[in-house]
Fold these 2 entries.
Entry 1:
Amino acid sequence: MRADSILFPTESGLYCPEGGFHIDPLRPVERALITHGHSDHARSGHGAVMATRETLDIMRLRMGPDFAASTQIADGPTRIGGVTVSFHPAGHVLGSAQIAVTPDRGPKIVVSGDYCRAPNPTCLPFEPVPCDVFVTEATFGLPVFRFPEPLTQAAKLLASMAEFPDRQHLIGAYALGKAQHVISLVREAGYAAPIAIHGALKTLCDYYIGQGVDLGELIPATADEVPAQLVIAPPSAFASLWVQRFRDPVIGFASGWMAVRARARQRGVELPLIISDHVDWPSLTATLTELAPSEVWVTHGTEDGVIRWCELAQTPARPLRLVGYEDEAE
Amino acid sequence: MKAFASLLERLAFTPSRNAKLQLVRHYLERTPDPDRGWALAAMTGDLQLRTVTPSMLRGLAAERLDEKLLALSYDFVGDLAETIALVWPDGAEDDPSLSQAVDLLRTTGKVALPAAISAMLDRLGPSERLAFLKLATGNLRVGFSARMARMALAGMGGPSVPDLEELWHGLSPPYVPLFDWIAGGARPENAARAPFRPVMLATPTDLEELRALSPDDFYAEWKWDGIRVQAVSDEGIRRLYSRTGEDISEAFPDVIDAMDFDGTADGELLVRRDGEIAPFGELQKRLNRKSVGKGLLASHPAGLRLYDLLIWLGRDLRSEPLHQRRAVLDAADFGDARIDVSSLLKFATWDDLAKLRADPPATVIEGVMIKRRDSAYVSGRPRGPWFKWKRDPMVVDAVLIYAQRGHGKRSGFHSDFTFGLWDGPELVPVGKAYFGFTDAELRELDKFVRANTTERYGPVRALAPKLVVEVAFEGLNRSSRHRSGVAMRFPRISRIRWDKPAAEADHLATLEALL
């Protein structure tokens, strides 16, 4: 069987007819395999959902107990229809997985979902899975994206807090993954004081802590006077009335996009922190070199850069042109 | 290079002037000579380096990266120096000093330059590469002026801003004797001829304050709407300085030519045709230029209207009372029609002066200056000897049409407003205002913005045309860069007209009539 009849893009997302399932479907389907809990990948209303235990927990926390008719925890290679599927850590956020689809005869396809190769204390590291077709994201698929060591960014934040000790530092970070990543980096850099978190981050921070991720002492950033110099909030909070309780804050944002100044300026950020949960250009291209698949499919982002790299490396590559995936995590 | 690069990055994203001053002061305190001096000169634009062209950079980058990937990258980033800094392959980073980078750009010959730049890029990390390339392309764009540099230096605890201003034009990068002086060493000799002297400034006043004073103790003269300058001619060296000590001589060769005297004079720089003073907008065309063409010199001739002398024929008059300085000024012969003396107004009471102020003989008069006859010429803005009594601002009633969120103390509040006037059925934007309202009014305005947003573009919101504000401004110029064709000077929100329906706001024609 050819790879593109095992798995191909439809309006609902990537579809596997042999198994009768979609991967990260964009609209409600009968059977869905979910790579991770970000809202553009994990939606409600599917019939049967298979994902890692953590991803199912996260979906339940974000969408309520009735987010799907039935759920199944991914646990080792599992037969679905005419194919075998298995889930492997993707290093993106807690519970994130790549999904390997192995037909009885024909090429093995690994759908990486969103993935990251840099060490992240809040989730399992990416596991390279040998395959024939590797489906990669391309959120940061250009050579301009070479992310610094994450700890240098925590150091940058702490240096700014020392430079302006009287100003609270409000760091924008998305609720699932990035917020906890930023907090754990700051802790790793030696910051022990309580960190205030916006109400929208509480549920997921509590879940991470319950899963054994050490985030140190967190206090709510809901009172009129927030007694912490460091405050983490989802970026949307900066447009809300909530931010008015801070007198002269330094506003920062933790994202891979902060690597490009124009992007940071558009956001009106004073302290851009380059902290990403996606592969940057060197680790994306290194992953393709390491796995050496006979074919590369590119899902979403700046596909042109990755396709060009594959062309130069003489690896067949094609864009899947899946629409609907945002970079929520960034 | 690392400390310099991280300073530049921080400055590029820091809107607050005080925060910028603090960042630079800390950098200067922690960085050794000569790096800190080079950094200061680079930020203020006082560093003359060999300029590297974009095409040379493009060529260098193409040696290291596939051209198609480079093009995709540039397309995404939108800035060539930044793109190259980001895509340049990491080399063996050894953190060369800023001085090494500056030396390279000062001394390398044209032929050897491309290879030298590549070799330097190989030794730098990503943010240092960007700092180096910005240095090489000659534009740091960090919003840090020479005046702010002097404020940061004064913050280091040694000489004051006026001390520094007086010496500034005799100093050159990397300013080692200056830093020695700040650290407690000897004051550098003022090597430059025709130095700038710190100027004396006036405080705003009103009739109520004036009534407590005796009119007999004061001189009054028109406040001309030009820019305050200091004209210095010292043994053949002639310079024209702005009131903050920036040397603007290059933009005004006509004035420099006319300065055939020996002394330091204080006055107003104006554009003047056949004795008539032109509006400020005409002078603006002559400002901020490195050089000026013949056409502009003929169409916009500049001149001086003097009102004080600091030094005359080798005599320092600054400690003498104004009436004596004025006597010397009135007796001086400038021998050129470009230079004249601001005449004194006749008044016996403050009410006389109020009448004159209310009906000045020319529209380019923006009020009156009032100066104690016995005042010495001292630097800074002392309260008491000199007053400015400006004419009342012009006002229009405009409709708020866009709002943008502020920074720092105004984080989370919509504090930057674009307002418009009616032009037929349409509202045409005529200006922006950031202040004039109290903190309580800011909260009210923010509430209005949130409740009346029709569209959002990032931090900017389009508003339903409902709220009228009274906008006060100091003057009006024609402007081809504004859709309305006019640009206001110093606009601010003087009153919020919660009571006034938007349909009753002013029309663009009202504004045009004020031109």
Entry 2:
Amino acid sequence: MDYASALALGVGFGLPLAVAFAATAQGRAAAAAAESMARQPEAAGDIRGTLIISLALIESLVIYVLLAFFLLNGKLPAIMDYVQQAGQ
Amino acid sequence: MEVLEQLGIEPGIMVVNVVGFLILLALLSKFAFGPVGQILDDRRREVEANLDEAERMKQMALADKRAIEEELEKVNARAEEILAEAESEAAKRRSEILARADEERRRIIEEGERAVEHSANEARRRLRAETAELAREISERALRLALDEQRQAALVEAFIADIEQLADGQSEGERT
Amino acid sequence: MHEEHGSWLNAIVHMLPESVQHHYVDIFVVNSWLVIILLVLLAWLGTRRRQRKPAGLQNVWEMYVEWVRSFCRKEIGPDGEKHVPLLGTIFVYILFLNLFGLVPGFITPTMTLNMTLPLAVVVFLWVQWSGVAALGVGGYIMHFVGQPVWLAPINIPVHVTGEIAKPLSLAIRLFGNMFGEETALVQMAALGATIFAATYIPFPVQFINVALHLLVGPIQAFIFFALSAAYIKMATTHEGEEHHEEGAGEHDEAQSAEQAV
């Protein structure tokens, strides 16, 4: 496996992997928040604020991966280079 | 540095943006947060003052109400007192009038009785005088007719007995 | 490397010299200036004639300031009111920047790190300054040293890294969200163009992304604002004190809940 292939795999699978775990985590956070809101409707406002902030914190990890995705994406060689290489 | 370029980071643009943000911060503080915050503070103070005022007014109103209630109670007691006085006065007056009426009745009855007795006595006296007169005339007539003594005496006896009986019956009839 | 973004303001940028265009004022900066002018105009109109009974724009500003104030009091503490101008400006500025791209002919300036990093840096400096102001220089340094003093060689790098990571994460979160949103919007629009070219049916595929943008913009603005408030609170209270205050807050809440019942 050469450098470009590894890079392509990293770019392709890195972000979905992060999204999968982050989605699991966000789902658990939202489920817990909904449960506690149902148990204590009078504390719904506070719980909602905390939920939004924690969802943002989880999501920021995905955003970091997105950033890395863009950085690595820029490092991928353009497709025409490959076509030319393959032709030679 | 390559990463910075790839992310499109330009220090000059960042400085310009910082300056822009600081200008916005200054202008918003001057135009929005300062004046609006002052308005909000003023309004909070005003509302608090109004609430205090309202509370004070309420206390005053309650005190007034209590005073009025006390006054009303006093007036009620006074009215009851007056009513009771009037009632007792009326009862006294009634019994007085009744007593006077009773006395009057008794006096009238007594007077009537006295008058009746007087007239009865008068009648009896006149009757007796008339009877004596009659007896005298009768005896004169009898003497004139020259009756015997026994017969004359018996007649006079019988006659007087009749008169007595009559007079008795007459007075009894008058009394009833 | 300098791509063109579709905006009606491109002409203004093109009037500038090349060096200024690429290194000081680009199209995003011009858009953000427009937002600044708009906000200042709104503020000036809203508070020009102040009345005891508010009407129109003044109402909106009063509601906004009251909301920011109560948020600061709740999140930062009783002396949170002095952070109201900064936090209030941050929220309304980012909100308008995020939603500005939805206005036809303009673009979202927060989709570049050039826009979000300065905001984060300002917040960072403000947080450090209010930490010094609240705790004093000694308290500020002790904040970095941490609780067991002999662990200072480990604690200080950890805390310094954490402090620097906070604004970085703020900036990158906002940038990533808005950039991702805009990229998805562009791709969807391109998909719509492709569909149109193939079938001659104009189908607005990006419509759902526009709706999502309307949702994400305010949420990201709120998150930037709320996390800034949280960082200010962390910097202005000692760690032990903070726990104590949290306990007291819970106690108060329990009491008020009991009273409510």
